[in-house]
Write a structure and sequence with these properties.
- This protein has about 325 residues and is an alpha/beta fold.
- It has helices at about 40-45, 60, 65-70, 85-95, 180-185, 190-200, 240-250, 270-275, 280-290, 310-320, and strands spanning about 5-10, 20-25, 30, 50, 80-85, 110-115, 120-125, 130-140, 145, 150-160, 160-170, 170-175, 205-210, 215, 225-230, 230-235, 255-260, 295-300.
- It has an eight-stranded mixed sheet, with helices on one face. Strands 9-10-11-16-17-18 form a six-stranded mixed sheet. Strands 12-15 form a two-stranded antiparallel ribbon.
- The longest helix is centred in the last third of the chain and has 12 residues, at about 310-320.
- The protein starts with a strand and ends in a 6-residue tail after the last helix.
Length: about 325
Amino acid sequence: MKPAFHHKLLSGPFGDPCLQVRILRERRSLLFDLGDIHTLSPVTLNRVTDVFITHTHIDHFIGFDHLLRASLRRRAPLRLYGPAGIIRNVEGKLKGYSWNLIEDYPFVIAAVEYDGRFLRRAEFRAGTRFTKQTLQRTMSGGVLLEDPLFTVRAVVLDHGIPCLAFSLEEPLRINIDKDRLTRKHLSVGPWLTELKRKVRECRSEGSLVIGGKRYPVRRLLDIVRTGKGQKICFATDIGISRSNAERLVELVKHADIFYCEAYFMEKNRDLATERYHLTTRECGRIARVAAVRNLCPMHFSPRYHGHEKDLIREVKGEFGKMVSC
Protein backbone atom coordinates (compact mmCIF):
# COMPACT_ATOMS: atom_id res chain seq x y z
CA MET A 1 0.00 0.00 0.00
CA LYS A 2 1.17 3.52 -0.76
CA PRO A 3 2.15 5.50 2.34
CA ALA A 4 0.36 8.71 3.25
CA PHE A 5 3.55 10.40 4.47
CA HIS A 6 6.68 11.23 2.51
CA HIS A 7 9.51 12.20 4.88
CA LYS A 8 12.91 13.72 4.20
CA LEU A 9 15.76 15.08 6.33
CA LEU A 10 16.49 18.36 4.58
CA SER A 11 20.14 19.07 5.32
CA GLY A 12 21.74 15.65 5.70
CA PRO A 13 23.23 14.13 8.86
CA PHE A 14 25.66 17.00 9.52
CA GLY A 15 23.33 19.93 8.84
CA ASP A 16 21.09 21.93 11.15
CA PRO A 17 18.14 19.55 11.66
CA CYS A 18 14.80 19.80 9.91
CA LEU A 19 12.58 16.87 8.97
CA GLN A 20 9.94 17.58 6.34
CA VAL A 21 6.89 15.32 6.25
CA ARG A 22 4.62 15.80 3.25
CA ILE A 23 1.07 14.48 3.53
CA LEU A 24 0.48 13.08 0.09
CA ARG A 25 -2.66 14.14 -1.77
CA GLU A 26 -3.38 16.76 0.90
CA ARG A 27 -1.06 19.56 -0.34
CA ARG A 28 0.14 19.88 3.25
CA SER A 29 3.43 19.51 5.11
CA LEU A 30 4.72 19.26 8.66
CA LEU A 31 8.19 20.29 9.84
CA PHE A 32 10.11 18.88 12.79
CA ASP A 33 12.67 21.46 13.95
CA LEU A 34 13.57 24.61 12.05
CA GLY A 35 17.26 24.26 11.29
CA ASP A 36 18.41 24.73 7.71
CA ILE A 37 15.26 25.16 5.58
CA HIS A 38 16.71 27.28 2.75
CA THR A 39 15.99 24.56 0.16
CA LEU A 40 12.22 24.90 0.69
CA SER A 41 10.50 27.27 -1.73
CA PRO A 42 7.94 29.87 -0.57
CA VAL A 43 5.21 27.73 -2.18
CA THR A 44 6.33 24.71 -0.16
CA LEU A 45 6.60 26.74 3.05
CA ASN A 46 3.07 28.02 2.59
CA ARG A 47 1.85 24.43 2.68
CA VAL A 48 3.34 23.92 6.14
CA THR A 49 0.50 23.82 8.66
CA ASP A 50 2.30 22.63 11.79
CA VAL A 51 5.87 22.91 13.09
CA PHE A 52 7.26 20.90 16.00
CA ILE A 53 10.35 22.29 17.75
CA THR A 54 12.49 20.11 20.01
CA HIS A 55 14.15 23.13 21.67
CA THR A 56 15.35 26.57 20.68
CA HIS A 57 19.12 26.25 20.42
CA ILE A 58 20.07 28.24 17.35
CA ASP A 59 20.73 25.25 15.08
CA HIS A 60 17.17 23.99 15.68
CA PHE A 61 15.29 27.31 15.48
CA ILE A 62 17.24 29.57 13.13
CA GLY A 63 14.86 28.78 10.26
CA PHE A 64 11.96 30.51 12.01
CA ASP A 65 12.69 33.86 10.34
CA HIS A 66 12.81 32.26 6.89
CA LEU A 67 9.47 30.55 7.48
CA LEU A 68 7.97 33.77 8.88
CA ARG A 69 9.08 35.81 5.86
CA ALA A 70 7.45 33.34 3.46
CA SER A 71 4.20 33.14 5.46
CA LEU A 72 3.24 36.76 6.11
CA ARG A 73 0.46 36.97 3.49
CA ARG A 74 -0.99 33.52 4.02
CA ARG A 75 -4.57 33.09 5.19
CA ALA A 76 -4.21 29.74 6.91
CA PRO A 77 -2.80 29.87 10.45
CA LEU A 78 0.64 28.49 11.23
CA ARG A 79 0.77 26.33 14.36
CA LEU A 80 4.05 25.93 16.20
CA TYR A 81 4.62 23.49 19.08
CA GLY A 82 7.58 23.33 21.44
CA PRO A 83 8.78 22.91 25.02
CA ALA A 84 8.07 25.29 27.90
CA GLY A 85 9.26 28.74 26.89
CA ILE A 86 8.46 28.47 23.16
CA ILE A 87 5.80 31.19 23.43
CA ARG A 88 8.39 33.57 24.89
CA ASN A 89 10.84 32.59 22.14
CA VAL A 90 8.31 33.25 19.37
CA GLU A 91 7.34 36.55 20.96
CA GLY A 92 10.99 37.57 21.16
CA LYS A 93 11.54 36.76 17.49
CA LEU A 94 8.51 38.81 16.47
CA LYS A 95 9.54 41.77 18.63
CA GLY A 96 12.81 41.96 16.71
CA TYR A 97 11.02 43.53 13.72
CA SER A 98 8.86 46.59 13.01
CA TRP A 99 5.31 45.76 11.95
CA ASN A 100 3.62 49.05 11.01
CA LEU A 101 2.47 47.96 7.53
CA ILE A 102 0.79 44.60 8.12
CA GLU A 103 -2.50 45.44 9.84
CA ASP A 104 -4.52 44.20 6.84
CA TYR A 105 -2.69 40.85 6.65
CA PRO A 106 -4.76 37.84 7.83
CA PHE A 107 -1.78 35.81 9.07
CA VAL A 108 -1.93 34.21 12.54
CA ILE A 109 0.73 32.27 14.43
CA ALA A 110 -0.56 29.92 17.12
CA ALA A 111 2.18 28.90 19.56
CA VAL A 112 1.71 25.93 21.89
CA GLU A 113 4.12 24.88 24.62
CA TYR A 114 4.15 21.55 26.44
CA ASP A 115 5.75 21.17 29.88
CA GLY A 116 4.98 17.49 30.45
CA ARG A 117 1.58 18.14 32.01
CA PHE A 118 -0.07 21.14 30.39
CA LEU A 119 -0.49 22.68 26.96
CA ARG A 120 -0.32 26.48 27.10
CA ARG A 121 -1.41 28.43 24.03
CA ALA A 122 -0.95 31.93 22.65
CA GLU A 123 -1.75 33.67 19.37
CA PHE A 124 0.09 36.36 17.46
CA ARG A 125 -1.98 38.15 14.81
CA ALA A 126 -0.57 40.29 12.04
CA GLY A 127 -3.63 42.53 12.40
CA THR A 128 -2.50 43.52 15.90
CA ARG A 129 1.19 43.75 14.93
CA PHE A 130 1.77 40.35 16.50
CA THR A 131 0.78 41.40 19.99
CA LYS A 132 0.57 38.28 22.15
CA GLN A 133 -2.87 37.00 23.11
CA THR A 134 -2.70 34.29 25.77
CA LEU A 135 -5.30 31.55 25.40
CA GLN A 136 -6.44 28.63 27.54
CA ARG A 137 -4.24 26.11 29.33
CA THR A 138 -5.28 22.46 29.14
CA MET A 139 -4.09 19.16 30.59
CA SER A 140 -2.29 16.78 28.24
CA GLY A 141 -0.96 13.27 28.52
CA GLY A 142 1.51 14.02 25.75
CA VAL A 143 -0.84 14.51 22.79
CA LEU A 144 0.00 17.79 21.07
CA LEU A 145 -2.23 17.54 18.03
CA GLU A 146 -5.12 15.27 17.09
CA ASP A 147 -5.96 15.57 13.42
CA PRO A 148 -8.36 13.34 11.45
CA LEU A 149 -5.31 12.07 9.53
CA PHE A 150 -2.77 11.67 12.34
CA THR A 151 -1.79 12.26 15.97
CA VAL A 152 1.41 13.89 17.20
CA ARG A 153 2.67 12.96 20.65
CA ALA A 154 5.64 14.28 22.62
CA VAL A 155 7.73 13.54 25.70
CA VAL A 156 9.89 15.98 27.62
CA LEU A 157 13.57 14.98 27.76
CA ASP A 158 16.67 16.54 29.31
CA HIS A 159 19.25 18.44 27.25
CA GLY A 160 20.31 20.66 30.12
CA ILE A 161 17.07 22.42 29.20
CA PRO A 162 13.68 20.83 28.41
CA CYS A 163 13.72 19.21 24.97
CA LEU A 164 10.83 17.45 23.22
CA ALA A 165 10.89 14.26 21.16
CA PHE A 166 7.99 13.59 18.78
CA SER A 167 5.95 10.72 17.37
CA LEU A 168 3.76 11.18 14.30
CA GLU A 169 1.20 8.36 14.12
CA GLU A 170 -1.31 7.58 11.40
CA PRO A 171 -4.19 5.49 12.86
CA LEU A 172 -5.17 3.89 9.57
CA ARG A 173 -3.65 3.77 6.11
CA ILE A 174 -6.29 4.13 3.40
CA ASN A 175 -5.71 3.51 -0.31
CA ILE A 176 -8.10 3.34 -3.25
CA ASP A 177 -8.07 0.24 -5.47
CA LYS A 178 -7.92 1.85 -8.92
CA ASP A 179 -8.84 -1.38 -10.74
CA ARG A 180 -12.07 -1.67 -8.77
CA LEU A 181 -12.69 2.03 -9.26
CA THR A 182 -12.39 1.58 -13.03
CA ARG A 183 -14.62 -1.51 -13.04
CA LYS A 184 -17.33 0.53 -11.36
CA HIS A 185 -16.90 3.18 -14.10
CA LEU A 186 -16.11 5.83 -11.48
CA SER A 187 -13.66 8.68 -11.87
CA VAL A 188 -11.39 10.18 -9.23
CA GLY A 189 -12.51 13.38 -7.56
CA PRO A 190 -13.12 15.17 -4.26
CA TRP A 191 -15.66 12.51 -3.33
CA LEU A 192 -12.78 10.12 -2.60
CA THR A 193 -11.59 12.41 0.21
CA GLU A 194 -15.07 12.30 1.72
CA LEU A 195 -15.20 8.51 1.34
CA LYS A 196 -11.84 8.17 3.12
CA ARG A 197 -13.09 10.41 5.91
CA LYS A 198 -16.14 8.19 6.41
CA VAL A 199 -13.95 5.06 6.48
CA ARG A 200 -11.64 6.72 8.99
CA GLU A 201 -14.62 7.56 11.19
CA CYS A 202 -16.19 4.08 10.70
CA ARG A 203 -19.31 5.56 9.13
CA SER A 204 -20.97 3.65 6.29
CA GLU A 205 -24.35 5.37 6.29
CA GLY A 206 -25.45 7.99 3.80
CA SER A 207 -24.45 8.53 0.20
CA LEU A 208 -22.03 10.46 -2.02
CA VAL A 209 -22.66 12.32 -5.25
CA ILE A 210 -20.32 11.21 -8.05
CA GLY A 211 -20.66 12.63 -11.54
CA GLY A 212 -24.16 13.87 -10.81
CA LYS A 213 -25.36 10.48 -9.48
CA ARG A 214 -25.85 9.48 -5.85
CA TYR A 215 -24.21 6.27 -4.58
CA PRO A 216 -24.74 4.64 -1.14
CA VAL A 217 -21.48 4.67 0.82
CA ARG A 218 -21.77 0.97 1.69
CA ARG A 219 -21.61 0.10 -2.03
CA LEU A 220 -18.35 2.02 -2.41
CA LEU A 221 -16.45 0.40 0.45
CA ASP A 222 -15.08 -2.41 -1.72
CA ILE A 223 -12.80 0.06 -3.54
CA VAL A 224 -11.11 0.94 -0.26
CA ARG A 225 -8.04 -0.87 1.06
CA THR A 226 -6.94 -0.30 4.64
CA GLY A 227 -3.85 -1.20 6.60
CA LYS A 228 -1.75 -0.25 9.59
CA GLY A 229 -0.79 3.42 9.59
CA GLN A 230 2.74 4.80 9.59
CA LYS A 231 4.64 5.87 12.70
CA ILE A 232 7.48 8.36 12.26
CA CYS A 233 9.56 9.52 15.25
CA PHE A 234 12.05 12.35 15.67
CA ALA A 235 14.43 12.90 18.60
CA THR A 236 17.58 14.95 18.92
CA ASP A 237 19.77 16.62 21.56
CA ILE A 238 19.21 14.22 24.45
CA GLY A 239 21.40 13.63 27.47
CA ILE A 240 22.54 10.09 28.24
CA SER A 241 20.42 8.99 31.20
CA ARG A 242 18.12 6.18 32.19
CA SER A 243 15.09 8.44 32.46
CA ASN A 244 15.65 9.93 29.01
CA ALA A 245 16.13 6.49 27.47
CA GLU A 246 13.05 4.99 29.13
CA ARG A 247 10.78 7.85 28.06
CA LEU A 248 12.14 7.80 24.53
CA VAL A 249 11.81 4.03 24.14
CA GLU A 250 8.18 4.21 25.24
CA LEU A 251 7.46 6.96 22.70
CA VAL A 252 9.17 5.41 19.66
CA LYS A 253 8.53 1.68 20.15
CA HIS A 254 7.71 -0.13 16.91
CA ALA A 255 8.17 3.03 14.82
CA ASP A 256 8.41 2.53 11.07
CA ILE A 257 11.23 5.08 10.92
CA PHE A 258 13.10 6.71 13.79
CA TYR A 259 15.20 9.81 13.13
CA CYS A 260 17.60 9.99 16.07
CA GLU A 261 20.68 12.01 16.84
CA ALA A 262 24.06 10.29 17.11
CA TYR A 263 26.09 13.40 17.84
CA PHE A 264 29.27 11.87 19.27
CA MET A 265 31.22 8.69 18.61
CA GLU A 266 31.52 6.30 21.52
CA LYS A 267 35.17 7.27 22.13
CA ASN A 268 33.88 10.73 23.09
CA ARG A 269 31.25 9.47 25.53
CA ASP A 270 32.51 11.72 28.34
CA LEU A 271 32.05 14.74 26.11
CA ALA A 272 28.60 13.51 25.10
CA THR A 273 27.60 13.28 28.76
CA GLU A 274 28.96 16.75 29.44
CA ARG A 275 27.13 18.25 26.43
CA TYR A 276 23.82 16.36 26.91
CA HIS A 277 24.00 14.46 23.61
CA LEU A 278 23.69 10.81 22.60
CA THR A 279 26.57 8.74 21.28
CA THR A 280 26.33 6.50 18.24
CA ARG A 281 25.90 3.40 20.38
CA GLU A 282 23.28 4.99 22.61
CA CYS A 283 21.34 5.89 19.49
CA GLY A 284 21.53 2.32 18.22
CA ARG A 285 20.70 0.80 21.62
CA ILE A 286 17.57 2.91 22.13
CA ALA A 287 16.34 2.00 18.64
CA ARG A 288 17.03 -1.69 19.23
CA VAL A 289 15.26 -1.78 22.61
CA ALA A 290 12.30 0.08 21.09
CA ALA A 291 12.15 -2.46 18.23
CA VAL A 292 11.91 0.22 15.56
CA ARG A 293 11.80 -1.04 11.97
CA ASN A 294 14.16 1.51 10.45
CA LEU A 295 16.68 3.87 12.02
CA CYS A 296 18.09 7.05 10.50
CA PRO A 297 20.97 8.42 12.60
CA MET A 298 21.43 12.16 12.18
CA HIS A 299 22.78 15.39 13.70
CA PHE A 300 26.40 14.24 13.68
CA SER A 301 28.95 16.59 15.23
CA PRO A 302 30.87 18.63 12.64
CA ARG A 303 34.09 17.30 14.20
CA TYR A 304 33.46 14.02 12.35
CA HIS A 305 33.22 15.42 8.81
CA GLY A 306 34.77 12.84 6.51
CA HIS A 307 34.09 10.01 9.00
CA GLU A 308 30.39 9.46 8.39
CA LYS A 309 30.95 5.75 7.65
CA ASP A 310 32.57 5.28 11.07
CA LEU A 311 29.59 6.88 12.81
CA ILE A 312 27.11 4.74 10.90
CA ARG A 313 29.18 1.61 11.57
CA GLU A 314 28.95 2.21 15.34
CA VAL A 315 25.20 2.87 15.20
CA LYS A 316 24.62 -0.22 13.05
CA GLY A 317 26.75 -2.39 15.36
CA GLU A 318 24.51 -1.57 18.33
CA PHE A 319 21.20 -1.49 16.44
CA GLY A 320 21.89 -4.89 14.88
CA LYS A 321 20.33 -4.03 11.52
CA MET A 322 21.01 -1.84 8.53
CA VAL A 323 20.38 1.86 9.02
CA SER A 324 18.83 4.17 6.43
CA CYS A 325 19.62 7.83 5.85
